[in-house]
Amino acid sequence: NKSLSELDPEVSAAVDAELARQRDTLEMIASENFAPQAVLEAQGTVLTNKYAEGYPGRRYYGGCEHVDVIEQLAIDRAKDLFGAEHANVQPHSGAQANTAVYFALLKPGDTILGLDLAHGGHLTHGMRINYSGKVLNAVAYHVRDEDGTVDYDEVAALAKEHQPKMIIAGWSAYPRRLDFARFREIADSIGALLMVDMAHFAGLVAAGLHPNPVPFADVVTTTTHKTLGGPRGGLILTKAELAKKINSAVFPGMQGGPLEHVIAAKAVALKVAAGEEFADRQRRTVSGARLLAERLTRPDAAEVGVKVASGGTDVHLVLVDLVNSELNGQEAEDRLHSIGITVNRNAVPNDPRPPMVTSGLRIGTPALATRGFGDEDFAEVADVIAEALKPEFDAASLRARVRALTEKYPLYPNL
Ligand code: PLP
Fold first, then answer.
1. Which of 162, 225, 327, 356 could be bridged to 332 by S-S, CB 3.0 to 4.6 A?
2. Is residue 191 within 8 Å of residue 143, measured between CB atoms?
3. DSSP string, 252-283
4. 0.95 exceeded by the pTM?
């Protein structure tokens, strides 16, 4: 019964160093967040010891009476939060949630229509070397050159031409809202299923700041660790008539034993997400992203070739376009890292640079909003980023400004 630091000082030291890194830097990777301490606690419980193949009330193992309570809480909270008829809380990740949906509703060789990876889609939406692109026949729609928004006319035309069995709406790097009614209409026009992957914006949906895809889609998938702010994991919401198919695709189709410790943490996160404090955090998230977009479209940014894809944002992230900048995505990511800001480089639509380099940055506000940042703080962050992307910049003073912000909002003070 030794503690982690006694039993394994090497792992323990690296965990401590990671906590220090999270505390001392500005985390702006759009898909990341800081899970509440209660979520960390739930995930670190004895539930990790329990096998529970099956579903609450129908398990293939004995001794499931307590994990049944927990999993049912997670299911009920997910259904309530998003207004869904059925929820499966077992997918180990977002990618596995998506793959389980394909496994449930499609056959190998069936056609899917999803947003191009290079235009902001996710690799599970039909990337060639992902399961979705290897086993299914993936066709991609795109964003428009003029304004960087999804080209619904192209979606409709491709749907008519390729007759996909399923249309996928959702994204990993897209700064605008999707028109779910339009997607539904296009899907209905060819008798296709509509899946919405709301992994990125689920937290905004929960807070009522983004249209809810549940009334429009046959299936909605999400991760639980992005804007939703919970443990790493996946979640599937469906209409009651698809419940059985989805459940058996997750288990026994794709997975064995569910991670009940993670499911407990999902239940806690879903409880948090139904509260007013969470809604306030999502409002600061969206407002912070808007401020960031505004300040990165000022004339001094334009002068050094910094632009914002689609001209702004409606969500929790900004896609910075560096096509005309001397800095490529890799250099810009490294530059921000050197002053204590963590972001990821990201291809922009029609990116002239190779995928490992890119001409863009994806910058998100969820983690900092969770930390407590408000408009004034996000304005300061935006100014620091704008300064850092200029050819001449004073690294020491920018580092000091970053430090002042991290000190203003202590992270995990009780850990
Ligand atoms: N779907 C979308 C839209 C995503 O952005 C991501 C993660 O980046 C995923 C699914 C996959 O989630 P995970 O990393 O948990 O497999």
1. 327
2. no
3. III-SS--HHHHHHHHHHHHHHTSHHHHHHHH
4. yes
Predicted local distance difference test score (pLDDT) of residue 230: 98
Residue nearest to atom 9 of ligand 1 (CA): 94
**ipTM entry:** 0.99
311 labelled ligand-binding? no
Distance of CA 193 to the CA centre of its chain: 22
The pLDDT, as a whole number, for residue 142 is 97
Residues of the chain with pLDDT under 50: none
- Residue 376: the pLDDT is 98
Determine the residue of 119, 124, 204 to mutate for testing ligand 1's pocket, defined as the one with the most ligand atoms within 8 A of the Cβ atom: 124
| Residues assigned a catalytic role | 51, 53, 197, 223, 226, 232
Instruction: Using DSSP, state whether 310 is helix, strand or coil.
Output: helix
Cβ distance 50 to 67 under 8 Å?
A: yes
**Cis, peptide link before residue 175, omega less than 30° from 0:** no
- DSSP letter for each residue of 25-76: SEE--TT-----HHHHHHHTSGGGG----EETTEESSS--HHHHHHHHHHHH
Return the SS3 of 186: helix
**Which of 395, 35, 43, 55 minimizes the C-alpha distance to 236?**
55
Ligand 1 center from residue 96 Cα (angstroms): 9
* Residue 352 confidence (pLDDT): 95
**Ligand 1 surroundings by CB, under 6 angstroms:** 31, 93-95, 98, 122, 124, 170-172, 197, 199-200, 223, 234
Separation of 107 CA from ligand 1 center, angstroms? 22
Centre of ligand 1 from the C-alpha of residue 398, in Å = 32
Pocket test of ligand 1: the residue of 32, 90, 172, 204 to mutate, having most ligand atoms within 8 Å of its CB, is 172
The rounded Å distance from CA 226 to ligand 1 centre is 9
**Helix H segments across 323-365?**
329-338
- The dihedrals phi and psi of 7, each to the nearest 5 degrees, come to -75, -40
Ligand 1 atom closest to 98 (CA)? 10
Closest CA to ligand 1's atom 10? 94
Enclosing H/E stretch for 138: strand 137-141
How many residues can be counted in the chain? 415
Task: Give the CA dihedral 73, 74, 76, 82, nearest 10 degrees.
Answer: 150
Q: Is 140 helix (H, G, I), strand (E, B) or coil?
A: strand
